[in-house]
C-alpha cells in the first residue's frame, strides 16, 4: 500500500507527496518531528505536519536567506541565526571569509539532533564542529531581549508563525532585533508566501519598515513551499542591497549569484501594491 503525506498549505490547498520510507517520528516539548524519504523531494524534515526542507531544493532557501544579507553588509563579522535547526543556514553563513563568529540559537534541540542524523548534507557545519559556529539550544526571543549592539547581521530562519515560531513575528521582537544590531547592522527574516499569506506579509513589512530606514522584500522560487514562491524581508539601518557593487563570492553556489541578488528584489505588481 502506497503512503502519501499531505501538508495542508491553506484551508483549501494541500501539497501531497508519495513517501517511500518514514525514517523518524518523534515529539519534542515543542512540536511533532518527522523525517521521511519522499519520491519527489528526497529526504524531508516535517514539523507539525508542515514541510520544512528537503534535500532536493533546500539550497534555494538557505542560499537566499544567507547570502543576500551577508553580501549586502560589507563586513559581516558577527552573525546570529535565530532558528535554523536543520543547519542549512549556518552552513552557508560560515562559508563567508569575513564571518568571525556565527551564533545559532534554536529552541528545539531534537530538531538539531534529528537533522544531523538524517540530513547530514544540510547540517554539515554542525556535524563538523566548525570553529566559527556557536550553537545554543534556547529561546531566540529571550536571547534577543538580552543582546545589545552586538551583531552585524541577524538571520531569522523561523518556521511558520504558529507554535514555537509565533513570537518571532511581532513588533516587540523586531524592536529587540533592532537593538541587538550594531549601528550599521541589518537583518532578514523569511516572510512566507506572497500568494497565500498576504495579510501576514503586509503586516510584517509594515512592522519592519516602522523601525528600519531601508526595508525590502525579495523573492525565491522554492518548489516545496506554498505556491512555489517564497518571500524574505530585509531590514537595514544603513546598507541598501540595491546600491553599490555586489561582491564576488569566493565559493560556488547553486541558486544565488550576483544577477539574482539584484533581480530577486524586482517585485511583481501585485506584491508592490500589497506592500504600499
UniProtKB/TrEMBL annotation:
The active site is at 157 (proton acceptor). Pfam families: Spermine_synt_N, Spermine_synth. GO terms for molecular function: spermidine synthase activity. Residues 2-237 form the PABS domain. Spermidine binds at residues 62, 86, 157-160. The keyword Transport does not apply. S-methyl-5'-thioadenosine binds at residues 31, 106, 139-140, 164. CDD domains: AdoMet_MTases. It catalyses: S-adenosyl 3-(methylsulfanyl)propylamine + putrescine = S-methyl-5'-thioadenosine + spermidine + H(+). Homodimer or homotetramer. Catalyzes the irreversible transfer of a propylamine group from the amino donor S-adenosylmethioninamine (decarboxy-AdoMet) to putrescine (1,4-diaminobutane) to yield spermidine. Belongs to the spermidine/spermine synthase family. PANTHER family: SPERMIDINE SYNTHASE, SPERMIDINE/SPERMINE SYNTHASE. This is Polyamine aminopropyltransferase. It comes from Propionispora vibrioides. The lineage of its organism: Bacteria, Bacillati, Bacillota, Negativicutes, Selenomonadales.
Amino acid at each position: 500500500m502506497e503512503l502519501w503525506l499531505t501538508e495542508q498549505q491553506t484551508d483549501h490547498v494541500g501539497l501531497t507527496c508519495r513517501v517511500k520510507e518514514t525514517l523518524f517520528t518523534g515529539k519534542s516539548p515543542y512540536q511533532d518531528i518527522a523525517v521521511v524519504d519522499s519520491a519527489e523531494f528526497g529526504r524531508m524534515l516535517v514539523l507539525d505536519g508542515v514541510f520544512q526542507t528537503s534535500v532536493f531544493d533546500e539550497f534555494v532557501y538557505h542560499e537566499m536567506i544567507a547570502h543576500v544579507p551577508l553580501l549586502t553588509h560589507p563586513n559581516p563579522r558577527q552573525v546570529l541565526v535565530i532558528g535554523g535547526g536543520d543547519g542549512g543556514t549556518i552552513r552557508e553563513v560560515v562559508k563567508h571569509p569575513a564571518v568571525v563568529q556565527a551564533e545559532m540559537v534554536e529552541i528545539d534541540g531534537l530538531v538539531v539532533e534529528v537533522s544531523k542524523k538524517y540530513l547530514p548534507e544540510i547540517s554539515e557545519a554542525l556535524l563538523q564542529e566548525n570553529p566559527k559556529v556557536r550553537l545554543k539550544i534556547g529561546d531566540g526571543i529571550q536571547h534577543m531581549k538580552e543582546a545589545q549592539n552586538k551583531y552585524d547581521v541577524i538571520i531569522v530562519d523561523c518556521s511558520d508563525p504558529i507554535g514555537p515560531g509565533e513570537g518571532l513575528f511581532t513588533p516587540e521582537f523586531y524592536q529587540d532585533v533592532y537593538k541587538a544590531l550594531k549601528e550599521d547592522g541589518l537583518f532578514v527574516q523569511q516572510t512566507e508566501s506572497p500568494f497565500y499569506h498576504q495579510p501576514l506579509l503586509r503586516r510584517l513589512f509594515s512592522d519592519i519598515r516602522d523601525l528600519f530606514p531601508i526595508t525590502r522584500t525579495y523573492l525565491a522560487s522554492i518548489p516545496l513551499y506554498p505556491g512555489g514562491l517564497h518571500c524574505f524581508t530585509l531590514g537595514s539601518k544603513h546598507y541598501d542591497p540595491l546600491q553599490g557593487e555586489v561582491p564576488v563570492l569566493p565559493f560556488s553556489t547553486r541558486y544565488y549569484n550576483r544577477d539574482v541578488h539584484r533581480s530577486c528584489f524586482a517585485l511583481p505588481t501585485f506584491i508592490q501594491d500589497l506592500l504600499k
